[in-house]
Structures are given as C-alpha cells and as structure tokens.
Input
Amino acid sequence: MNEHQTFPRSDGPLVSVIFPSRGRSSWLRQAIDSLYSLSVNKDQIEYILKVDDDDDETIATVEKLAEEIDLRAIVSPRGNGYADIHEWYNEMSKMARGDWILIFNDDCRMVTADWDHVLLHCTVDKLWHSVPDVMMTIVPSVGRPDTKEFFFVRRKVVEILGMMSPIAHMDNWLTSVMEFVKSLRVVPIMVDHFSDRIGDKVREESDAASQATGPDLMGRTAVLSRFDAAAKLLAYINDQENGKAMTEPRTSLNPRIVVRRPGSVPGTAEG
Output
C-alpha cells in the first residue's frame, strides 16, 4: 500500500461525533463548541447524542443546538443508566453517516487546532493489510497519554460488527479487538478530559456503574465476543483483498431529533 495514501472518503460527513449527555447543559455546549470552533470543515462533522427523556434542560439545549449545527439525538428512557451505556453507543453508531466515528464525552474538550484536517490527512502506512476501512486511531488525553478512552473508528468497523460493544466497558472491549487484528494506532490529536475534576452526581453515577460492570470485562461473554468480532474483521479483510464485496444492507436514519419513547416505533420522529 502507498505510504502516502490517505483514508478513503465517502460522499457523507468526515466524522460522526457520538456521546451521551445528562444534566450538564453548560458542559455539553462547551464540549461541542471545542469541536466546532477548532475544526476546519465544520460542515463535514455531524453530532449524534443520547439524552434521557426526563432531562428537559438537556433536551431543550439539544433542540437549540440542532438549529445551529448538524446534530441529531436519541431521546429515550434512562433504563439502567450508565450500565446501559454500550446500548446507547450502539444506537448512536447505527445513525452515523461519517467515515469516522469519534467517541467523545460532555466532560471532554478538543484541544488540537484543525483536528479534522489532521484526521483527513492521516496516511495509511505500515498497515499489515490493504483494507484501510478496518482501522481505529486513539486520541490521547492531556496528562494521560496512554489512555484509550477516546478514539476515532472507521464506521465500516461498526457495520461489520453490527455494534460498538456488547458490554458497558465499550472503549476497553473495542480497542482490545482492534489491537488483536493489529489495526490500531495513535493519531496526533489530543483532548482534555475533566472527569477527575468534576465531582457532580453524574460522575458519581458513572463511577458506580463502571465498578459494578467491571467484572463483565473479563466475563465469558466479553471474552468470546472479542474472538467473534476479530474473526468478522479478519474475514472482511480477507474478502476485500480477494475482491469480494460486502453485501449486507445498511439502514440510514435521517431525522434531526429522533425520539424513542415506550411504545413508539423505532426510527420515527416526533416534534
């Protein structure tokens, strides 16, 4: 593969930024502003959020933001809270139209200027296979360069797997899969994560859910599903290198604000 070749572009957005938000309207606006203000091609970035249906303030903020930028949201019941966070990411990722999906947080800030330009011009080099759509790039955090909690992943990876993760520790699960297939690298883009500097109720709930679901990370389901996911990606790489096309249809959702309420039909829009 040509060392100077960049990742392929579709006719959709370059990036789909996805993350949940609850009770942090001000932080949410700052998070999106950091991404928006530091980007070059602002019309090539879409935002997809998950908001709880009892969080009126955040819903109002999201509706206002949707008038200003390309933003859609899933407004649905909270369920088991952060113990269900992988289900939220699975839903948001299915709505994504970007070539890359960026995992972000409302307590996170982009700090790299022209970050989308940096991503756009990343080259496909030293990749053992010839299928650049099977790739993840880690985004380091300020002061924590070895963390793997934020990343860009090619949308095709999610399509192949049919999900982001089967367990709540989504970042650990997916990065371990991509490490296994040797399709993970660090991108020269950095964020600042304020998680350890915010002591609000949301943070407390998140920490509690993380501890409660921690054993799932090394449970039977998580371990076996990693092997299954890696096998799917390797099979796709093999098929692509042998000229076979992936024929599974993909569903595209288009409404700006997608509202899921008990008894509603998935994919329908309200308001």
